[in-house]
Amino acid sequence: MAQEVISILGGGSWGTALALALAGRFERIYLWVHNVELAERMEATRVNDVYLDGFALPANVVVSHEMVIAPWMMSVVPSKHLRGVMREAAERGGREARWISATKGIEAGTFLRMSEIVRECVGGVPAVLTGPTFAREVAAGEPAAVVLASEDDLFAQELQTAFAGGNLRFYTNGDVMGVELAGALKNVIAIAAGAVEGLHLGSNSMAALITRGLAEMGRLVVACGGKTETVAGLAGLGDLVLTCTGQLSRNRRVGVELAKGRKIAEVLGDTRMVAEGVETTFVALDLARRHEVEMPIAQAVAGMMEGKAAIEMLRGLIARAPRAEG
């Protein structure tokens, strides 16, 4: 049975893909698009020609620049804009809604996770939607498995039932800390993986990078209170493998370009898409210092973005003092 209505905030590739994927489960979906011109064009043409071209929006998806507050709200805006959008949502009555956060990242300065920003601005106990997904594949209806995490188990189960159907399989998880940190940190490792690819260092190097990247993520997740098993699941290992190896990965693409010697500003200027790992790298390192956790791969990525040669940064990882695996 279809639910009545959900409002998705964010008309980028992922927000648009979620509107497509959930259209069969809701009588109406409101898709809020920040850019007025794009919103009007999407409503008229039924296609997001900027972020997810080639997929027609179903008739029950209403695109608008005006934010609509529905009983269920999903935030898919870039992390650096989340707080501002949540404040606007609060002013429009968003405190009465039940929220799902589908943004990956850590806020600079506060170290707050995305669901914590949502809770701070609009209250309640939000759920988190995360896992190994590329928007274009989800939009195309290709099978995928994702995670719905919440401290409110009943809310997570309610969402799992409401969203079920089509080619997405939803798993619940109570470790909100773990799934959110893993989802943010994997983007940092993916930049390093892109550098490995860009330098043509081979499959051995890539396997080592992904494996040690997983260990690096796990150390910080556990230090912050998350669970090891979460890092080994869809939100951790699954998303890490996808983002490090998939051709559609924005963060991986950043690493490939850095390996060519390009400056980070130039790389980011080439696309309107957001590579969350760029900002997350420096926030993650600050968080790691607070918890006295070593993150050598993240440090190497930071070095690349500061203009140091990618090959030297990666060689530095090999040259580190010998230690036991773990």
Assign the CATH topology of the largest domain.
Rossmann fold
Give the total of beta strands.
Answer: 10
> What is the CATH superfamily label of the largest domain?
NAD(P)-binding Rossmann-like Domain
- Radius of gyration equals 19 Å
Tally of individual helices: 15
| Strand line-up across the major sheet | 5-2-1-6-7-8-9-10
Q: Poorly predicted ranges (pLDDT <50, ≥5 residues)?
A: none
What do the pLDDT scores average to? 94
Coarse morphology: globular
Q: Given the helix and strand composition, which structural class is it?
A: alpha/beta
Note the run of SSEs as H and E: EHEHEEEEHEHEHEHEHHHHHHHHH
> What is the end-to-end distance?
47 Å
Number of domains: 2
Helix-residue proportion: 40-55%
Q: What share of residues are in beta strands? A: 15-25%
The CATH class name of the largest domain reads: Alpha Beta
CATH architecture of the largest domain: 3-Layer(aba) Sandwich
Largest sheet: 8 strands, mixed
